[in-house]
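INFO  loader      accepted 1 record
INFO  loader      residues=601
INFO  predictor   begin
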Amino acid sequence: MTETSARRPIIILDFGGQYAHLIARRVRGLGAYSDIRDPSTPAKELKGAAGIILSGGPQSVYDTASPTADPKIFSLGVPVLGICYGLQWMTKALGGTVSPGKVKEYGHTEIRPVSGGGILLKDIGERCTVWMSHGDEASKLPDGFQLTATSDSCTHAAFEDPRRKLFAVQFHPEVTHTEHGLEILRRFVELCPATPWSVEGYAKRIGDEIQEQVGDRRVFMLVSGGVDSTVAFVLLNEVLGAHRVQGLLVDTGLMRKNEIAEIRAAFEKLGVTNVRIEDASAEFFHALQGLVDPEEKRRAIGDTFLAVQKRVSEDLGLTASDGWMLGQGTIYPDTIETKGTRHADHIKTHHNRVPAIQQMLKKGLVIEPLKELYKDEVRALGEELGLAHELVWRHPFPGPGLGVRILCAAKPDTFAVDDVGIKRWAGGWAVLPVRSVGVQGDGRTYRHALALFGKEPFELTEQLWRFATEIPNKRREFNRVLLCTSSVEPRPFIFSPGVITKERADLLRDADAIVTEEMRRADLYERIWQFPVVLLPFGATPGGQSVVLRPVESQEAMTARAAAIPQDVLRRMTERIMKLPGIDFVFYDLTSKPPATIEWE
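INFO  predictor   done
INFO  writer      dumping tokens
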């Protein structure tokens, strides 16, 4: 950015990729042009900014490796907003003090505006529920700042210096789960004379980038049938022409029930004929044989995709030397969780980011037309391209398919835990003998889930939801809280070593199909953003298995709230799943993201 640039964006300094692009999206949605920069960008290169937002991030400002920005940005005379880690860096840079918080907050927290809420929090009410994700907090404000909000666990939840147009909030206004969050951001954006931004011409702008990147080459596109790859494939067809694009749909053996037939019918309805369907299920099951580590499974699935792609491309004569490149439906959250930005913590390796793909990316042999978009933007683009509503609004499904929803382990993972912080729960509780991935403070965790049991397994009480937030905040050994819907009291968990097999995949396929049928029957399918169904390698009998129901509400996948299912629907799902052979327990995942992730692996 230079002073002579034609655009005046609101610059987001990316202290942690989990949030910077979401902030940029929100700013765009508010009608202002935005741009993302590394926090180390010198202030002199930011002189043309209309405003600056310091994003959240997983670090502590006192860690030597923590990212920092140029303190001279506070002298540019433009509005500056610090969010989460951005608040903490601003506090420290301007002479305040940051200290470890008494309680690490992840999830919903209630704040109380003070001093009228200042400029940003004015008129939001006496209390407001916000989304927190932090371990440190500002313990002493810099000179010139006034407190504008507080909470039970965070004294300085928000503060500002209106004279210098400096603002700071410890919570995340950019996530959908913060009440009045968009209004808070809107008030900041209105202080910034930014270049206007509009979604009009969105497809054309992406199309211009595709033409520039592809040049006179052609694209070989891996199509999963999910929303992302379908939209990317149709977009490439639209921009380049079907004669320059070849699609490949690989049957991995890890798809949903009847999925291949449904995808084939959907493409036929669209008039898409440049797709080859390849049954490679035997190859995938062979590659996954004996693997239990989630990262090893993802790499094996990604590498097998490439091996099949290579075999088919050679069979069709589609090689790089003949002017072909690889297309993928990767979206932005996929790259963030694989440490795709400089300061983003590694949450998991996406199958589109295995080492072989990374090498191809470096060589310029991969095109990812949706890599900067979020799921809701992809859907908007899909409808703009004329795709059917039911296809565009199909639930997201991971590229590795059921491979990341079938948990595998060679031995049980258990530990002793006292009941401090849990004993207030009236029913029983038990620690699951497996771990799952989570994200606490934007950093990856691999921890246990706590299962709660009660006399009313289908009743989602306020206390239950409160426990689901409180326990991971207070007990770091847990990143998920579940409700057992198939049993009212704990029974001993009997672990059975589990890997991915066709039999386990078929069992999970049937459970997933039951959930989808019941959602559609209750008219919940489009109200629930995503509903992973997970298979765990333990039960109440030798060889028994358990199923986890994971319904979530979200828009962009960066954060998500556990969705509430009506009692009658939850009862039907549970009773039908329990009739499947070998299923001994059904659990309901009550945990939001963070501290959990949407998927268990």
